[in-house]
Every structure is written in C-alpha cells, then in structure tokens.
Amino acid sequence: MNKILIAEDEAPIGNLIRTALEDAGYRCLWTPDGQTAADALEAEPFDLALLDIMLPKANGYELLEYCKSLDVPVIFLTAKGQLEDKVKGLRLGAEDYIVKPFELMELLARVETVLRRCGKTGRVLSLPPDIEIDTASRLVRKNGLPVPLTAKEYDLLLLFVQNKNIALYRDRIYERVWGEEFLGDSRTVDLHIQRMRKKLGLEKRLVAVYKVGYRLEI
Ligand code: CA
Predict the structure, then answer these.
(1) What is the 162 CA–ligand 1 centroid distance (Å)?
(2) Could you give the 3-state DSSP secondary structure of residue 62?
(3) Cα-to-chain-centroid distance, residue 218
(4) pLDDT for residue 80
(5) Which of 85, 114, 160, 195 is the most exposed place for a label (fewest CB within 10 A)?
(6) Helix/strand/coil for 30
(7) CA 56 / ligand 1 centre spacing (Å)
(8) Which helix (H) or strand (E) segment is 105 a member of?
(9) 21 CA distance to ligand 1 centroid (A)?
(10) Tens-digit pLDDT string for the chain (218 aa)
(11) How many other CB atoms sit within 10 Å of the CB of residue 188?
(12) What are the pLDDT digits (tens) for 179-202?
C-alpha cells in the first residue's frame, strides 16, 4: 500500500485530500506546516509527497529539496493562476503540479500516474471482500479466479475502485475511460458498466444514481 505525505496548511483542503486518498486505498499523513512535514519525511519512508507551495515554517520549494534527497517524488499544489509557481516547481524537479481548486478525480489520476512513472505503484488493488486488480498485468481476479474483462471494462472498474463511494457523472466517466468529449449518448457508458458489474457480481454495489451516473459502494 502506497504511503503519501500531504503538506497543506488549509485544514479543509488537507482533510479532503487525505479522505479521498484513503478511500482510494492509500495510506496518508497530513501535516499543516513545512517543519512537521520535514519531520515526518525524516521519520518514515513515503512513496509520494503532495506539497502546497505557500506553507508556514518551510515552504514547498524547500521541502522539494528535502524530498529529492530522500528520493520521494513530489506533486505541487498551487493556487489558481500562479503560472510562475508551476514553472519553477517543475524546473526544480517536481513530477507534476495540481492547480487549486481541483477535482478529486483529477488528483487521484495524477497521483496514480506519478506513482507508476516513479516505479512506486502498489501492483495490486483490492475491492473487498473478493476482488483483486493487478494493475501491472491488468488482470482481475474474483475469489482468486481470473475474470476476463474488455479493456474498457477494466478501465471502468479501476475508475470506480479509485473513487469508491463517490457518485461519478456519466459524462465524466465517458471522458475518463474513452478519452474523448462526451457527446450525449449515455448508452455506451451504461452498456459497458452493466456488462462489467455482471461479470464481477457487483450489481448490488455498483449502483445507478438517478440523473447522475453511478457509484461504487463499499
Ligand atoms: Ca498554503
């Protein structure tokens, strides 16, 4: 299980990120200032650090240097419109940046991408009690037995497992999995979700949300 450090002095944002990442299966530590973050980095190994730039005691750039010395990849959280921050952050060696305010789906996607790129990804995600997803081989097992999914069904399953208990809009699901703009025909999404959840016996847990889309309940 990957462990992520969050350094963010705005408590509501820090808590939101922590909850979302924990729901997606990561272990997290939220720290409200740069000094506490540095102490935590020194005390235990982390696979990734999400760093706000403007932090009390030590700012994000200073923490980035510290992370680099410990081989911990960094994603910066920057306020909207701070283009200079983004450029500077990337030039100094951050893996990515996220502009606040952001959508949780985007945050999770970027976290996953950076972990994979840096070779830190936990290979196996689980959907208790009986489903396991090996993200390296893209194999899905239920009760230890392989379940053959199409590429789109696999991508859908991964999206829901990474966004448990969140109602996902059909158009956003479409854009994430099909990679193109949604043009209003939701039957494609419905068809693929229905087939995927039937193969995995998720009919009672991957539920339709009226006028929205779908939600995976745990
Ligand atoms: Ca801040």
Answers:
(1) 26
(2) helix
(3) 17
(4) 66
(5) 195
(6) strand
(7) 8
(8) helix 104-117
(9) 19
(10) 789 999 999 999 999 999 999 988 899 999 999 999 999 999 988 999 999 999 999 999 999 999 998 889 999 998 866 777 777 878 888 999 998 888 888 999 999 889 888 877 767 788 889 999 988 778 999 999 999 999 999 999 999 998 889 999 998 899 889 887 777 677 889 999 999 999 999 999 999 999 899 999 98
(11) 16
(12) 877 776 778 899 999 999 999 999
One DSSP character per residue, 118-163 reads TT---SEEEETTTEEEETTTTEEEETTEE----HHHHHHHHHHHTT
Q: Say how far residue 154 (Cα) sits from the centre of its chain.
A: 16
- From ligand 1's centre to the CA of 212, what distance in Å? 33
CA of 173 to the centre of ligand 1 (A): 31
Ligand 1 centroid to 10 CA: how many Å? 6
Q: Which of 70, 86, 69 is nearest to 78 (CA)?
A: 86
Distance from Cα 62 to the centre of ligand 1, integer Å: 14
49's tokens = 């650090």
Report pTM.
0.62
Full DSSP string of 183-203:
-S-THHHHHHHHHHHHHHT-T
